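Researcher: For the annotation table, I need structure tokens for Protein serine/threonine phosphatase 2C. Please keep the output clean. Sequence:
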Amino acid sequence: MYFRRASVALVSVLVGYGAYYSYRGNETDSLVKRAYSTSSANTAAATGDAATQTRSVLVIGADELHTGTFVGEGPISKTTSDDGRRVIEMLTPEQATQKLRKSEESYLVNRGQGVVRYDLVQLPSNDPIEDDHTERIVEIPDQSNANGTSDWMFWGVFDGHSGWTTSAKLRQTLVTFVGRELNDTYRASGLTPSQEAVDAAIKKGFLKLDDEIVNQSVQKVMQANNKIAAAELLAPALSGSCALLSFYDSRSKLLRVACTGDSRAVLGRRSESGKWIATPLSVDQTGSNPDEEARLRKQHPNEPYVVRNGRVLGGLEPTRAFGDASYKWSREISEKLKQHFFARSVSSILQTPPYVTAEPVVTTTKIEPEKGDFVVMATDGLWEMLTNEEVIGLVGKWIESQQNAPGSSSSSQFDSVWTRIFGSRGGKGGLPVEAARGAADASGSGGQKTPFRGVRQWGDSADGFVVQDPNVATHLVRNALGGKNQEQVSALLTLPAPFSRRYRDDLTVQVIFFGNGERTGEVVVNLDATAPAKTPKAKL
């Protein structure tokens, strides 16, 4: 795929004609005049007519993008020929920033329980967005704590596919299912469960919810025996979603990351050199992961196409997911549902389902709040554009910029806490991050994907990264799209659905900052880094 500038005159004539037609109906005489007047406007611009407006446009083809300029007034949007090529007006840098920041949220966590802030943002590519997310803090009794309580903190990102209903179901219920199992486990052990018991509780919560989505829904549909109920009950089963859930126990300072699918969590921790070290806390579970492929082939022997072209049965990329019932139901159930209600067509090579599981892989990490650890959680749309090291380095660069950020309206108390925890030890130039090392480095080893979009899709960019957003999650998304290359950022944000899916996925990013902050018991909306239209409520 290519990204280049198009000829000015041709684009201008086409756009002028098409835009007028779409707004003025079949006034043929006016159409001709409009087309010619737009072309004449180019000539005026070339001779220095300052009164003529010049705007950037994006020409969308089947496998390439062009940018150009349009001279003249009026709306710009038209499919220009039978080949499906489309011309639309490019967002200005200000409009691009407004779109990037539309859904951003930021919270200052003044609970003195090891977390000081978390930021999040979403950027849709599908319409509607198929990603979802959740954040929740649960206060629990704790006699070992001088304050009598400790916190369980949950953050989750859910990467939906084939629709949004499964990820929405996870947003509504996954923390509840997992929390219920954790509560039972902690109580049964006198509040000191083993690591294995906690991992098992999290897995049990995942699997119970998926059973409700995939299997119990079928039972309810059969009992109700009507299509309205079937449409509601089967929607989360017929679509699918990956899930990445983090659970932080402030009492033990242990962070558990449960991953089902190919969203990813990465820890940033300061090294002695002052730079940050990127440590993956999850592994991408896809058909391209050798361990996942081996697991599936062991479970389904004598099925050579159980993984084909890096996909389950040649169709589904993640090997673990919620929903996706067509990979879990027997052929008989699928055909019965399809005949009487709704279901997807059964794969011709389906033999021994289920092929896909919602059971997560759980990792445990001891957090060091006093060192200013942070964690980035994101759906695969981010990791298709940036490496682990680039993401952690970009957060490190953003932290450096916050030390003397002007115009902040956040409390001076929080500012002093932030400076004490994170300080400013980075050097100038480049990203303050150590070189890749470990199982999942920049080469994509260890089962993790190698980035292929963004600057890698358009070619190497010498412009580099930029820091201009008060919300660190938005900062990551901006740099994933092109950073200082404003034309590329604007182009990728201008693209409407479904064209945008050729170049970028839905993006959901959360960044959690750990630290020993002040204890007021409050979770406060950080207005400096929250979209004005969002007016979110702090979640406790």
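Researcher: And a one-line annotation?
Model: Residues 1-48, 438-445 have pLDDT under 50 and may be disordered.
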